[in-house]
Specification:
Catalytic activity: ATP + protein L-histidine = ADP + protein N-phospho-L-histidine
Strand content: 15-25%
Largest sheet: 7 strands, mixed
Helix content: 40-55%
InterPro entries: 2CSK_N (IPR013727), HAMP_dom (IPR003660), HATPase_C_sf (IPR036890), HATPase_dom (IPR003594), His_kinase_dom (IPR005467), HisK_dim/P_dom (IPR003661), HisK_dim/P_sf (IPR036097), Sig_transdc_His_kin-like_C (IPR004358)
Radius of gyration: 48 Å
Main location: membrane
CATH topology of one domain: Beta-Lactamase
Number of strands: 27
CATH architecture of one domain: 2-Layer Sandwich
EC number: 2.7.13.3
Organism: Albidovulum marisflavi
Low-confidence stretches: 465-479
Shape: elongated
Structural class: alpha+beta
């Protein structure tokens, strides 16, 4: 039997105790560190909220209709420095009216409006938000009035930053703790050196050296020192007992063999056959006793050797007992003995115990042998096997003389026989006792109902585990096809190759594709009941898509690691761009020569002003009130400088014609109705002008805006898993290849080998293309006041007059 060197290590226990102390201290410090990390993260992100609030307050003014605001793009740009969180805002006059933004944002219950920012956290639209509330007083005709700005962000980014601060601080503390534990380990090793010295002294001893350990131990281990010497004394006594047992075995064997030799010598010296026969009969009986003694000595050694628990395994007792009885019936001594087995009441599987079959078989053999040896010639031996919920009982009864209750302990001692008449080896019951101890079984000896001895072994039962096989039952009919619903503002023919390729990958899938205009799609998502939302939403109006995602309508997904997107084309792992769509100028080179085309937006304004009569009514662009992508291009142009506003005015004086979509503008230019059209979607224009020789595309040298068709999966999508697979397909190498080769669209990830003239131009002059980033900054021009102000300026530039709604 080996001892686990590490199971009871004093060094390890001391180290674990010290480590536990360090852990408790670390936990206490962690609480303080967590609070500090929270405050630090809040301070960082609160600066963004406060900066955005201040920039809005600075643009507050009093007009004819009261307080108003010109929402600055810088406010949303400041909030966009946090690339993860959704944004909500509100501008209002407390207790009077809403100016703009979301009117139902929650206010703190006990806050008093002031010029100092007030920060608070509250749940809104199923998400945790942190808000800032700040006010400013304006001079109005009826006196000074307070106006307030309320801006909130979800707390995902600040939570992540808090965890980052906390993890960094905790890592440092953990490092210091490990260094401290290292010093503790050195101290423990030094303190326990005397123990290692004792171990070394014992290790150098000869096997027969059982002398006490000498020396003067440290006071702290004197008790251990005395215990070791006490153990050595007990080991010396045990060794003496073992030597005595070996001597007894040698004596028993020698005595038996000597008796056998004596009988044979007398038989050899016998004077007649009768005496010789008598001596040979005695020698035969002695030989049988010697064989039985030898067998039992071997059995005793085997049982002791196999008493280790590692040799035990699940064992069914019923077949083992039957096999052993069948073997015993071959013994000639069993001719006059009635041997019975009663195990019919035990069901299959109820007789399972943890046991060693060889040891249990040997115990049963010895019980039957004892019954034969000590019982009458016409003995009756009954073996019974039964079980209950916890135990399995194996009983052996006989009709012999039995054993007095007072003699039972003595009967199980080695080399002890209670009857001189039937004296055996004295090992039978001691072997059974060793088997019981090795199996953690109970051994009971009592008077048998047959008049003799009843020996019962009680084993602990193992209840077998039932393995339940789960199988899927398919209906006899065909499997119902799944339907993936897509609402999109992309022309159906342009998306068809992608849809067909995905359907081919997913047998049984049907895609239901519904086409919208960008603004209609946006309104549809706001008006539809959530239960009727599609599985995927696709649109080229990036700002409208950002607004839908910012409202919490999208599901966060994880794309495969093989998909790598530019940072500008994804937001919150919820909204993803999958195409690269530059804004271009489509022109009729019969009306405008290549050489005179302006190279920049500033030059375009000058060119149109100088040729106003020439191009009057022959310049086209989007109707930005009806076209989402047209509004997006126009607002993003306005951020590039004052030349955009100047260009609007020049185009208005030249009687700009507006259209709903790219195809109408290209068709009008092809007919000669237009000399050129600006801010046309490049991929569509390239495809539509391919077969018209007098139509060409023009790019500017200062910048060319790039939008991306974006897609997201609504939170209540009925087939979210399929939608996620479709999204991954759009952005995979295969999906991008199909976009480049089989559709008029341009892939987000550039092809290694361009497939069209426009792709080659993009590759050669990629530095002139300015992607529109998916950030909350796109929400600026969706603000109701800001949008109406921009559209009013647009109408005024075009000479149109509309009443405010």
């Amino acid at each position: 039997m080996t001892t686990d060197r590490f199971g009871h290590s004093l060094q390890r226990r001391l180290l674990i105790t010290m480590a536990a102390g360090f852990v408790i201290l670390l936990l206490l410090i962690s609480v303080l560190l967590w609070t500090y990390a929270r405050e630090a993260a809040n301070r960082t992100h609160d600066l963004l909220l406060a900066g955005a609030a201040l920039s809005i307050l600075e643009r507050m003014s009093v007009g004819p209709e009261g307080a108003t605001v010109d929402l600055p793009n810088s406010a949303m740009d400041i909030l966009s420095l946090n690339p993860l969180d959704r944004v909500q805002y509100r501008v209002f006059v407390p207790g009077q009216r809403e100016i703009t933004g979301t009117p139902d944002l929650p206010l703190p219950s006990d806050a008093t409006l002031s010029a100092e920012p007030i920060f608070y956290e509250v749940d809104y639209t199923d998400a945790a938000f942190r808000f800032v509330l700040q006010g400013r007083q304006l001079n109005a005709p009826d006196g000074r009035k307070w106006v307030a700005v309320q801006i909130g962000q979800t707390v995902e980014s600040r939570n992540a930053q808090q965890w980052s601060f906390f993890a960094a601080g905790l890592a440092g503390l953990a490092g210091l703790s490990l260094i401290g534990l290292g010093f503790v380990w050195v101290a423990i090793r030094t303190s326990l050196a005397p123990l290692r010295q004792i171990a070394s002294d014992l290790g150098r001893r000869e096997p027969g050296d059982l002398a006490p350990v000498g020396g003067t131990p440290p006071r702290e281990i004197s008790g251990l020192f005395d215990a070791i010497n006490g153990f050595i004394a007990r080991l010396q006594r045990s060794r003496a007992l073992t030597e005595t047992f070996i001597a007894d075995v040698a004596h028993q064997t020698r005595t038996s063999l000597s008796a056998l030799q004596g009988h044979l010598s007398l038989a050899a010296d016998a004077e007649n056959l009768d005496k010789m026969r008598a001596r040979l009969i005695k020698a035969d009986r002695q030989a049988l006793r010697t064989v039985r003694l030898t067998n039992q000595l071997l059995a005793n050694a085997m049982v002791i050797h196999r008493s280790d628990r590692t040799s035990l395994r699940p064992l069914a007792l019923k077949p083992l007992v039957r096999d052993t009885l069948a073997e015993s019936l071959r013994d000639s001594r069993m001719r006059n003995v009635t041997l019975s087995f009663n195990g019919d009441g035990i069901a299959e599987g109820d007789d399972i115990v943890e046991g060693d079959p060889l040891s249990v078989r040997e115990a049963l053999r010895n019980l039957i042998e004892n019954a034969l040896l000590h019982g009458p010639r016409d003995n009756t031996i009954a073996i019974t096997l039964d079980a209950d919920d916890q135990n399995v009982r194996l009983s052996v009864e006989d009709a012999g003389p039995g054993i007095a209750e007072a003699d039972i302990p003595k009967a199980m001692e080695r080399f002890t026989s209670l009857s001189e008449k039937t004296k055996g080896s004295g090992l039978g019951l001691s072997i059974v006792k060793a088997v019981a101890e090795g199996h953690s079984a109970d051994l009971q000896l009592r008077r048998s109902t047959l008049g003799g001895l009843d020996v019962t072994l009680i084993f602990r039962r193992i209840i077998p585990l039932l393995l339940v096989l789960l199988c899927t039952v398919f209906s006899a009919g065909a499997t119902q096809a799944q339907t993936l619903t897509i609402h999109s503002a992309t022309d159906t023919p342009a998306m068809t190759p992608l849809l067909e390729a995905f359907e081919a990958r997913m047998p049984g899938l049907k895609i239901e594709y519904t086409e919208f205009q960008t603004v209609d799609l946006y309104r549809s998502m706001l008006e539809l009941d959530r239960a009727n939302w599609p599985d995927v939403v696709i649109s080229s109006a990036m700002d409208l898509q950002v607004d839908l995602v910012n409202r919490g309508l999208a599901r966060r997904i994880s794309l495969p690691s093989s998909v790598s997107l530019p940072a500008w084309a994804t937001w919150r792992s919820e909204l993803f761009g999958f195409t690269f769509e530059p804004a271009v100028v489509v022109y009729d080179h019969r009306a405008v020569s290549d050489e005179e085309l302006p190279r920049s937006h500033r030059d375009l304004a000058t060119f149109v002003r100088e040729n106003e009569e020439r191009f009057r009514g022959r310049i086209g662009s989007y109707d930005i009130r009806e076209s989402g992508v047209g509004y997006l291009y126009s607002t993003q142009d306005s951020l590039q400088g004052l030349q955009a506003i100047r260009l609007f005015e020049v185009l208005g004086r030249a009687d700009l014609k507006t259209y709903c979509c790219t195809s109408d503008m290209v068709a009008a230019t092809a007919r000669g109705d237009l000399a050129f059209a600006i801010n046309v979607i490049g991929s569509y224009a390239s495809d539509l002008t391919e077969d018209t020789s007098h139509l060409r595309l023009h790019f500017f040298d200062d910048y060319n805006l790039v939008m991306s068709r974006t897609a997201f999966i609504p939170k209540t999508a009925r087939h979210a898993d399929l939608a996620e697979q479709f999204m991954a397909f759009l952005l995979s190498k295969e999906g991008q290849r199909i976009i480049a080769e089989e559709t008029p669209l341009l892939p987000l990830i550039p092809s290694q080998v361009p497939h069209s003239q426009i792709e080659r131009h993009i590759r050669d002059t990629r530095g002139t293309f300015l992607p529109i980033r998916l950030t909350p900054g796109l929400l600026t021009f969706l603000d109701a006041l800001k949008r109406e102000e921009f559209l009013t300026s647009w109408d005024t530039s075009l000479g149109r007059h509309r009443q405010r709604p």
